[in-house]
Design a protein that fits this description.
By secondary structure, the protein is an alpha/beta fold. The protein contains six helices and nine strands; from the N terminus they run E-E-E-H-E-E-H-H-H-E-H-E-H-E-E. Strands 5-6-7-3-8-9 form a six-stranded mixed β-sheet, with helices on both faces. Strands 2-1-4 form a three-stranded antiparallel β-sheet, covered by helices on one side. Strand 6, helix 5 and strand 7 form a beta-alpha-beta unit.
Length: 197
């Protein structure tokens, strides 16, 4: 089971999480949907072990078995598309690179640097690099920014095929329609949109 119980966290005077409790499915794709700034990213960072709540309990795979995709692409300007994947994979898995490139729609861009890619292409590269790492839990913060609908459908299909829980944040109606579960949120402090925490 993946759950948070009575989480509370503040940044200075700003209360971002306050007595938040939530249980998440152990399989499939769950979308956290809510307005910008409501606390979705903070929740993902807590689950990834990057933020320590002031109080409460988290039941989830340990950080070393959790993959977090940040809102920013965090690509290395001096590394090619292919190198971003070989950097993430052990050498014995380099044969997988063409499959990940195909999933991202980046076949033929192996030697390209990030600066020559569109925003959507960079986002897709960042996403498949995260997926290639492998883990027991994927936390994806706005993974489809700048990605066109056809590619969103293909990538969501790949996410749903994983035998691993995927928790992602998104504002997009298409992403929500393709998910296994949608949790509507509001805040800050972060809460279920119907007012329950």
């Amino acid at each position: 089971m993946i759950s948070v119980s009575h989480l509370t966290l503040s940044y200075g005077e700003k209360r971002v999480l306050e007595d938040l409790s939530l249980t998440l499915p152990e399989r499939g794709v769950t979308v956290l949907s809510g307005p910008s700034g409501c606390g979705k990213t903070t929740l993902l960072r807590c689950l990834a072990g990057l933020e320590r709540p002031r109080s409460g309990r988290i039941q989830a795979p340990p950080p070393r078995e959790t993959v977090l995709l940040f809102q920013e692409d965090r690509l290395f300007p001096w590394r090619t598309v292919e190198q971003h994947l070989t950097d993430a994979l052990p050498q014995v898995r380099w044969a997988e690179v063409p499959r990940w490139l195909d999933l991202a729609g980046l076949t033929g861009e192996e030697g390209s640097l990030p600066a020559s890619l569109s925003g959507g292409m960079r986002r897709r590269l960042a996403l498949v690099r995260a997926l290639a790492l492998g883990g027991r839990l994927y936390l994806l913060d706005e993974p489809f920014t700048g990605v066109d609908p056809a590619r969103i459908r293909r990538l969501m299909e790949a996410l749903r095929a994983l035998d691993t829980p995927v928790l992602l944040s998104s504002h997009e109606a298409l992403v929500c329609s393709l998910a296994d579960r949608v949790i509507c949120l509001d805040g800050p402090p972060l809460r279920l949109a119907d007012g329950r925490s």
